[in-house]
């Protein structure tokens, strides 16, 4: 039986959200789907969304894997943490995985999910079955000219620079996470409910403070890029890249940096934006299922030879 601090939702094709009371007293919202006997996939969303990002892929993905998709603290239905940082988020998700008695897992990295995912992966690299990288930055090459204001804020954290670095925390800035630099015909396929729901959540108490704290703390994640490079070089986890080429926030040079770090990475570039799954969920989940099944077969063959 699960820990009694987890409130169970009604099971459907993908379950309704469950809640876990963390050891610090705040609650984490998450969904699970699929059979726990299957290989696990941890889906980590980015700014400014929630586990809702994965709504179109969970049903099919759960046919091949046991899916865990949390709302990061201060996002979606999860409570705000009293002290906000990516390591604190990583610890919260690690506590969830421990309560679920989750063993080896694939980790899906997107945007703000990357610092959280690497925190988890590097704590227990032997438990990482593979990485699924979807518009997630882990190299300085990902910072294009649009990062100038944020970089200035990190080097000189004064009120003027903070205002520039957080200027996107508006309704328009939230919408632009989905639509900026995306061709009109592709943008037309993105439902307005996505950014409208994100903005509704961002206006709740404590949520803007969470976002400001994460923008500042991302500098500490960047400072770990060398350690992340060492982790990737040493462990070379099986990896699948799904990348929206019209990403307004991470430079295309980041794609090559990932492929240099992981020479055997399987990479697919889509005619999509930062939120790839809003427009290309069917193609993405098909590749994810193939990747999981193939790497599982390879692992089984390797185990049989040992």
Structure description:
The longest helix is centred in the last third of the chain and has 29 residues, at 277-305. This protein has 12 helices and 9 strands. Strand 6, helix 3 (113-123) and strand 7 (128-133) form a beta-alpha-beta unit. It has 306 residues and is of the alpha/beta class. It has one domain: Alpha/Beta hydrolase fold, catalytic domain (Rossmann fold, 3-Layer(aba) Sandwich), CATH 3.40.50. The chain is globular, with a radius of gyration of 18 Å. Residues 1-14 have low confidence and may be disordered. Strands 1-2-3-5-4-6-7-8-9 form a 9-stranded mixed sheet, sandwiched between helices. 43% of the residues lie in helices and 15% in strands. It has helices spanning 58-61, 86-99, 113-123, 148-155, 159-165, 171-179, 184-187, 192-202, 207-222, 225-235, 253-261, 277-305; strands at 6-7, 18-21, 27-33, 40-44, 66-70, 105-109, 128-133, 239-244, 266-270.
Write a compact overview of the structure shown.
The protein has 12 helices and 9 strands.
Descriptors:
single chain, 306 residues, 15% strand, nine-stranded mixed beta sheet, 12 helices
